[in-house]
Amino acid sequence: MIEEGCKVIKSDAQFVWLEVQPKSACGSCSSQTGCGAFSLSRYFSPKPSLLKIAKSFDVQDGEELVVGVEEGAFLKGSFLLYVLPLFSLFLGAFLGAQWNASGEWLSILMGLMGLFAGFFWVSRKGRSLQFSDLFHPKMRRSI
Predict the structure, then answer these.
(1) Which of 9, 121, 122, 131 is deepest in the core (most CB within 10 A)?
(2) What is the pLDDT of residue 111?
(3) Helix (H/G/I), strand (E/B), else coil: 93
(4) Residues 120, 125, 130, 135: what is their CA dihedral angle, to the nearest 10 degrees?
(5) Which segment, 38-42, 52-56, 112-116, is predicted with the most confidence on average?
(6) What per-residue confidence (pLDDT) applies to 34?
(7) Under 8 Å CB-to-CB from 117, ≥6 apart: which residues?
(8) What are the backbone dihedrals phi and psi of residue 108, each rounded to the nearest 5 degrees, phi first?
(9) Residues paired with residue 3 on neighbouring β-strands, in sequence order
């Protein structure tokens, strides 16, 4: 289970609205004064995101919670977003090279077509998986 801390903004009988503050690696080392990345991170820090999840136990507004997502869901989502489009790109480029040995224009075209086909398939699969309970974060415990 991959877990993250968050703060309860609002709750009702069925749902809880949470504010999740993204963490930055900057600020954790001792060379903050001479670091350009630390200086830029103060101006471009990510905004907190709001998350609506199903309520599994009673909480109060302002309470700190830990929410979690299954590792299997995280790995499956990562595979769909990154590996599948790249695989379809390489497969398309390989097939284009096999069909046209005299030049690489068909390989480039087929590679791009494979990449866009991979993105299209991920988009369609993502729409069907958004209702799966596996991909929704769950309330774990209060802090």
Answers:
(1) 122
(2) 95
(3) helix
(4) -120
(5) 112-116
(6) 66
(7) 88, 92
(8) -65, -45
(9) 68
Phi and psi at residue 129, in whole multiples of 5°?
Answer: -85, -10
Give the tens place of pLDDT for each residue, 8-43: 999 888 999 999 877 666 656 666 666 766 666 667
Furthest-apart CA atoms within the chain: distance in Å? 69
**Structure tokens of 99?**
């069909």
Give me the mean pLDDT over the 40-57 stretch: 79
d(CA 24, CA 52): 23
β-partners of residue 64 are: 7
Residue 114 Cα distances to 80, 100, 102, 124, angstroms: 14, 16, 20, 15
Q: Is 106 helix (H, G, I), strand (E, B) or coil?
A: helix
Sheet of 2-11: strand order equals 49-54, 15-20, 2-11, 64-69, 138-142
DSSP symbol at 48: P
- Average pLDDT over the chain, rounded to an integer: 85
